[in-house]
Amino acid sequence: MSHQFLRFTRSSDDTVLVREISRFLLNSYFGVQRSRTAWKKQLPTVFPWHRQKHGPNGEVVGIENFQSVPLLIETVDEMLEKKRTFDFDALKLFDPMTVWLDQELHVAIDFHAIGIKTASSIGGTFPYEGLLDREGASFLSFQSVILRRIASVRKELVTSSEIFAKVEWFQSLRTLVSECVSLIDGLLHQLYWRAECNPQPGWKFEPAKLGPRHGQRLADKLNWVPRITGKLLHTKEETAAFVQLKEIRNHLQHFDPPVFCFTLEDVTRWLNLVPSVARLNWEIRKCMGATLSVPLIEVLLGEKVEFVPKDPSRPRTPQGPNSGYASTSKPKP
Question: C-alpha distances in angstroms, 58 versus 54, 55, 235?
Answer without folding.
Answer: 5, 5, 42
